[in-house]
Design goal:
Blueprint lengths: L15 E9 L4 E4 L2 E5 L2 E6 L3 E7 L6 E6 L4 E6 L4 E9 L4 E4 L2 E5 L2 E7 L1 E8 L6 E7 L4 E7 L18 H20 L5
Parallel strand pairs: 1-7, 8-14
Antiparallel strand pairs: 1-4, 2-3, 2-5, 5-6, 8-11, 9-10, 9-12, 12-13
């Protein structure tokens, strides 16, 4: 271009969008479209309409992934779950309801993946059997296998000339209590 000459140019302005990524716990590794970009918390501008495949990782936690298309400024908050182990429960007979920390996880036999590492309370129940409650430790990356034999509740009918012994509900209650106590003692479980 020479002095005094005018030239034309066109500039296309594109809308930018900022993506902010937060994680709990913080200081997790971030990957955008497969490339490492840093640690959380983190922010970067992109052209609006850009598609981002986000992966957040941290030791001893389950990876978090999400795909977003930026239409404007976006904040992503990710809570990473603790990585855990697997819990495998079988019962004799099969078909018992299994609860872990008060939440139903299925009917035996049951296998629960990604159980947080640590100690948990296991509760097993089936109609006509003494319920079982036990503590189970789950280690990260390992399988905790437990097999339980359920004890059948027994029903005694006692006839007596003494009115106090004719109460079938009293006898049932006493038999259940004794069966449950015997079962706990045999298993050497710790009970609160």
């Amino acid at each position: 271009m020479r002095n005094g000459e005018v030239s034309e140019c066109s500039i296309r302005l594109e809308k930018l969008a900022t993506v902010r990524i937060l994680s709990i716990p913080a200081d997790a590794s971030l990957f955008i479209n497969g490339r490492p970009v840093g640690k959380s918390p983190w922010a970067q501008e992109y052209v609006a309409g850009t598609r981002l495949a986000i992966r957040i990782t941290k030791d001893e936690h389950v990876d978090w992934t999400e795909e977003v298309v930026l239409s404007g400024d976006t904040t992503i908050s990710a809570k990473l779950a603790l990585a855990g182990g697997t819990l495998s429960i079988t019962t004799t007979p099969a078909g018992a309801k299994v609860y872990l920390d008060g939440q139903g996880i299925g009917i035996s036999p049951v296998r629960q993946e990604q159980v947080a590492a640590g100690e948990h309370v296991l509760h097993i129940e089936a109609h006509g059997y003494v319920p079982i409650e036990d503590k189970v430790a789950v280690e990260m990356g390992r399988v905790a296998e437990r097999d339980y034999t359920l004890t059948r509740l027994c029903l005694l009918e006692i006839e007596s000339t003494r009115p106090a012994l004719n109460s079938l509900s009293t006898v049932r209650s006493q038999v259940r209590h004794r069966s449950a106590f015997r079962h706990r003692r045999e298993r050497n479980s710790s009970w609160s």
